[in-house]
Amino acid sequence: MSLYYVYLRWYKEKDSRCGQWARQILTCESRYVADEFFRACKELKDTRGRSRFTRLERNNPQFWLYDTTDGDPWMSLFDILGANLGMPDSVKGRIMPTLLHDGPSRIWDAAPVIPGRDWVHNCSYFIRNIRQPELYWSLDPSSSNILVSDKQKTKFRVSAVQFGRDDKNKVLTRSDIVRLSLPNNPAAVGATAHVRVATDSGVICGADAGEFTFRFGDLLGNFGSKWAAHPAGDAREFLTWSEQGEQDDWELC
Description:
The protein has helices at 31-43, 73-83, and strands spanning 4-10, 23-28, 53-60, 63-68, 95-99, 123-125, 127-129, 136-139, 146-149, 156-160, 177-182, 193-197, 204-207, 213-215, 220-229, 235-241, 248-252. It is mainly beta.
């Protein structure tokens, strides 16, 4: 994983300073850390039991709007991160906030932009290899197995088991327990196929019955691949699961 950057703009309606003051950039250990920080801040309370952030919105994964309940908003992030207020262990010591110059005319280095959408509950994504981004997960209709392919790809719906219908846009973090499904199941029109693991081989497949859950963070290291004979008579690369880790790293896209 590489460093990940987020711009934060203080946004308070009818306050003329918000276009020029309190603009920040977060340098995060990874995108996962940034998303976990966002989730923690959404749940953070002040001393009176109110949400500490009166506004915390994502225009996209790397551009957030914020406002706070108390004190100078441009210092709140430093206070929160400096004292690790309400932060999970996965965030502590893994983010550096920087207050950008005030005013419209001063120049700062632009942070690298990472293409892609937010990783949120109950949305559909392709899944690709981080180190070899040309490799995707692809459902093989003839065998119902999930293959690793540089020619075809399949979208999977990612759902956190603890979230409900009202949590559709809730950001996923590594500790969330998720399931994968194939909303456009080619084997049965209108049916939903869930992804599961074949217990005898560890191969991942799509099936109408049964399902398989794992931590969202298990995409980093618990899914691998192996070459094996395909019913068509040739060898193909099958997606596999291992509890031991030390496999490949994958991401949603």
